[in-house]
Amino acid sequence: MALQFVPGNSGAGKSFQLYQKILQEAGTHPERKYLVIVPEQFTMQTQKELVALSPRHGIMNVDILSFDRLAHRVFAEVGGDQTPVLEDVGKILVLERVVQEQKKKLGVLGSSLEKLGTVSEMKSLLSELMQYDIHPEELDEIGNMAKEKPLLYHKLKDVQTIYQGFFEFLRKRYITAEEVLDLLCEKIGSSRLVRDSWIALDGFTGFTPVQNKLLRELLKLAQQVWVTVTLEEKVPVTQLKRPQHLFRMSGEMMESLTRMAAEERVEVLDPWWVHPGEHSRFCEAPALEFLEQHLFRYDKRQYRKEQEEVQIFQAANPKEEMEEIARRIRLLVRTKGYRYGDFAVITGDMATYGSYARQVMEQCEIPCFIDEKHSILMNPFVEYIRAAVNLVVEYFSYESMFRYLRCGLSGIPVYQVDQLENYCIAVGIRGEKQWKDHWVRRYRGMEEGSIEGINQIREQVWEKIGPFAEYMKEKEHTVEERTRMLYEMIVKDDIQERLSEKKQEFATQGDQAMVKEYSQIYGMIMELLDKMVQMLGSETITAKEYGQLLDVGFQEMRVGIIPPTADQVLIGEMERTRLKDIKVLFFAGVNDGIIPKHGGKAGLLSESDREFLDSRQVALAPTARESMYIQRFYLYLNLTKPSRCLYLSYAQSNAQGQAQSPAYLIALILRMYPKLVIQDNPKDEISQMQMAQQATEILLEGLRKDGEQQQNDGWRELFSWYLRSKEWKEQCLRWIQAAYEGAPESSIGKAAAVALYGKELENSATELERFAACAFAHFLQYGLKIEERQEYEFRQADLGNVIHQALEQFSRNLKKNQLTWRSLTDQERDQLIDTSVEETIHDYGNTILESSARNQYMILRVKRILRRTVWALQQQLKAGKYEPSRFEISFSMEEDLKASNFQLSEDERLRLRGRIDRVDRYEEDDTIYVKVIDYKSGNTALDLTSVYHGLQLQLIVYLNAALELEEKNHPRKHAEPAGMFYYHVKDPLVDGKPGDEEEEIERKLLEKLKVDGLVRAEEKILKDLDRELEAGKKSLVIPAAYNKNGSLSSRSKTASKEQFEELCAYVNDKIRENGTRILGGEMEKNPYKLKQRTACDYCSFKEICGFDEKQEGNSFRRLPTFSDEELWKKMREKGEKKDGNEVDTGTAEGH
Predict the structure, then answer these.
(1) Closest CA relative to residue 179, chosen from 90, 68, 41, 89
(2) Residues in contact with 1108: Cβ distance below 8 Å, sequence separation at least 6, in sequence order
(3) Domain of 534: which CATH number?
(4) Which of the ends of the chain has fewer CB neighbours closer than 10 A, N or C?
């Protein structure tokens, strides 16, 4: 029995020399048994190497094993406990159940273990305790050491409770993977495979306490044990004990095995030092050999020769960094004759670089294998199960229901899910009962008959999920019963077939990673469900607990992909990925915080907890400080893996655009190689064109940016190449045209417009104003009928609608009760307001206003505003002679009104529809004086410039219609305009002083609530509207004031009778003009800008439109402003010109 270490520097050829020796001896001594034990992930590769090195390319008496494979071989030979081994998924299922059972006994960890992921942390901690040979009873003693740290003490007590419960559950039923080696130690003495064998341990950097127990047995049984050790020769043993020494791990491993050998009286032979030679990794790369010899030695040695074996480059961000790596790989394959299998890319941040690597390598057509197992939580099948269980737990909440419907496997088409969601949001569908019941409510704007279609979809949904939900919500069901119900739903929904169809789609697209995932996922889920039934089947649990059980199982599961081919670039994590026979290594993301990794989440035991236990000689996994030194050792091992070239790269900013610094390693390498220069990512090189898709993206980005990037020489060269290329020239010209057109076609054509709108265009004033603001927005809203999704909530915009409806209801109730505005008492007014508001709320959104405390406040606010509004409207009426004539007067295309019917051409007409909030009238002799009032909840003011540009037509349209309706109802009388006004519905605050009279406060309120608009300038009309208006006074009810000399103030908003007529005629012409343009198919992106106001300010279609003034071809239509005098003149001139044309036309016709 003997132990011999095989030490040597990284890359010296330790494995090669040892394998050669074993093969030589195995050939000479065929009766001997040789066992080569390596880490699990190296077994296949080591077997290939040994076969390749063997003269006969076959090895009969040499076995390549890992510790786990050795256990299986020994158990198969000597027999062993047939208790099944509990792997990670089974372990976490048991732990979740134990946690639920022991929850009430837990102190500090109870609530935290409810969070997704913390049970996994508990599993990791228990695995660590098992690996370091700490049993539940010993944990009790360790806990007693920590009494001076109460939090740690109670935490350890909780861990012990769970640990003990875990083993009690497993007793005589399962053993853990960590216990396998303990069991192997008991059985291995009877194994003929191991007894008197020659054993080589290769590729290990250290051993856990449980593995050391096994090694003790191997030392006692084997004839000889060789152990390769990465170590520099002539390093004093005393230095190896220093925590910061590079080879401390190697020194600890040798010291532990030497002590073990001495205790078992096993001879320790002199080390077999392996020195670099012809089989050294760096025999053709002196600069890399220098790196191995001096990295992290801090001896200040420098490599002063010119070299290309070690290079550093920087990139703007991780994506560009990966693009440069791909470019260099392609270049080296083409110019140096490398195979893709000669390359590896490693990083300390796989979360960022792994996703970019997959994307970039695919774009560049570089075969690669990404060495990571990814979570299955985002797989649609997993989401389907989680969502189905969750909607039971969440009582069919909106979020849970549509999580299920949008999981991708619900079987309901996406467009139908969209319809359902729009409906549910609009009317507030919540809860199981509402999903079971027939739906009857319709939201505003919902088409007649569409509710039946919605109900058909609802019935399909309930047929799929209803039986499952009804069963799962019952409390008294076992794991087996719930799993059977879940399985029945999976079978009924034909999930296996649908997953197979998705797999075929991915295969067609060439996405092998997704093909592998979809090939495995159904079997993995079925295996999980089988495990749950097998291990916990008789346990009675709630639906919520069942969901938690599934979640911890899903979270633990990972999809691993076997490399499809040997000739591919290996991409992996610096600590996890094992590299062998790599010629060129790219080390990406060499940034501070990634290299070395900053302390991440410590788990259930914090770093201070671990340091305290370490100070009490409790051996656990390394602390953060120890991990930093271990990281450095792994960094040394990785950096010395390539035999030809090493590339280090870093990003100047992270994926979120935040600046970041290179890691300390960059400065260290630069000091070691003084002639080394950091290269920039060469964006300007035409070599980018090796990657056609990437080159295309660069070209298009430059076309879009139009400026800075086009000044780049590399971009211009690329652009020139595309234009010269026979293959790409036509496509490039199309790209240029698309880039500089800026906007889509400005017209859909007359035929399409007529098909869309009809020859009789039905419009409202608001729609025409929308067209004047932006033709494209009008097209989207009224042509394509695109609208914002209605939501079951009461927003600020709804406040105006409710007040508007309540005012209308108030007017109806006033008439119903045979009351008048003038005679109404305060008590009658307030009572009618309360009744009107309650009736409006009842009809508004079916209890939407009654569904929260916030909305209850809104109801009180509506009543308060309405009281103030009705009071102010009363005072305004009482101030003059006018009486309300009609409320909420609708005029539409059916009515034969000139004001709402416009002939656009011989066969095209425009018909206006609208509703006037209120018309007041005053009769004198044969004349009816008319004023119209439009209630507004915002701060809209009549602006003649906006009227001139077609942006404010409503009041004038309403006035035209009201005048014509009055004459129609009173054929013997003549109607004239008195005014048109906006009344702003609000409850304003006014300045006041202590002791102010109520009359003074009311005067200030009336001033704030005065109507805005345009009023006839004649003194009689003004006096009839406000009898108190006189010289030197301003009206409290209309926008008019007199100077002291009796003339109208310049602040008055007045117009003569002729001006009213000119304004009405001008607006009619504007309506005809815009109607003609709409039916002509105009839909240009032409938003206006008037002073600081634009059509885009509150536009709902910004995301669809994509209007960007910075982009070529996109600009605002800047509208000029005019004084009132200029505007009246322009409208008069336009009217005169029109009249002149009509006269000329008539004369011509006469002749």
Answers:
(1) 68
(2) 1114
(3) 1.10.486
(4) C
Contact predicate 446/440, CB 8 Å? no
For position 624, which CATH number holds?
3.40.50.300
d(CA 922, CA 897): 22
Residues 927 and 1058 in one domain: yes
Element (H, E) at 1093: strand 1093-1094
Rounded to whole angstroms, the Cα distance separating 1047 from 1034 reads 12
In the prediction, which pLDDT does 578 show? 81
Contact 1084, 1116 (CB under 8 A): no
Q: What is the pLDDT of residue 714?
A: 65
pLDDT per residue over 677-717, tens digit each?
A: 999 865 444 444 445 556 676 777 776 654 444 446 666 66
Same domain, 960 and 1031: yes
Q: Same structural domain for residues 936 and 1017?
A: yes
| 74 shares a domain with 126 | no
Instruction: Confirm whether 607 is domain-assigned.
Output: yes
Residue 411: Cβ-neighbour burial (10 angstroms; 0-12, 13-18, 19+) = middle
Same domain, 247 and 118: no
Q: What residues contact residue 455 under an 8 Å CB cut-off, 6+ apart?
A: 438, 439
Residues 6+ apart with CB under 8 A from 1054: 1014, 1015, 1016, 1017, 1022, 1039, 1040, 1048
72 in any annotated domain: yes
Structure tokens at 343: 């390359």
Single residue among 680, 697, 720 that ends a domain in this structure = 680
1078 neighbors 1070 (Cβ within 8 angstroms): no
Length of the chain equals 1151
**Residue 259: predicted pLDDT:** 94
Q: What are 113's two structure tokens?
A: 């273990």
pTM value surpassing 0.90:
no
Q: How many CB atoms lie within 10 A of CB 790?
A: 16
Asked if omega into 596 is within 30° of 0 (cis), the reply is: yes
DSSP string for 67-78: HHHHHHHHHHHH
Phi-psi region of 805 (alpha: psi -120 to 50; beta: other; left: phi over 0): alpha
Q: What angle do the packed helices 209-221 and 177-187 form, to 10 degrees?
A: 20
Residue 348: name the closest of 663, 668, 582 by CA: 663
For residues 57 and 107, membership in a common domain is answered with no
Domain's final residue, options 133, 151, 173: 173
**E-strand spans in 730-847?**
760-764
Which residues of the chain fall below pLDDT 70?
80-81, 561-565, 598-602, 681-695, 697, 703-718, 720-721, 723-729, 733, 736-745, 791-798, 843-855, 893-895, 1112, 1139-1151
Beta carbons within 10 angstroms of residue 22's beta carbon? 25
Please state the domain count of the chain: 7
Buried b (16+ CB within 10 A) or exposed e, 206-218: ebbebebbbbbbb
In the chain, what is the straight-line distance between the N-terminal and C-terminal CA atoms, in Å? 132
- For 1130, the domain range is 1121-1151
Residues 881 and 844 in one domain: yes
- Say how far apart CA 617 and CA 1050 lie, in whole Å: 93
Query: Is 860 inside a domain boundary?
Result: yes
Give bridge partners of residue 196 from the DSSP assignment: none
Answer yes or no: do 850 and 953 share one domain: yes
- Whether 55 maps to a domain, the answer reads yes
> 323-368: per-residue pLDDT in tens?
999 999 988 998 888 999 999 999 999 889 988 998 898 888 888 8
Q: Which two tokens stand for residue 791?
A: 């939501």
C-alpha to C-alpha distance for 842 and 825, rounded to whole angstroms: 26
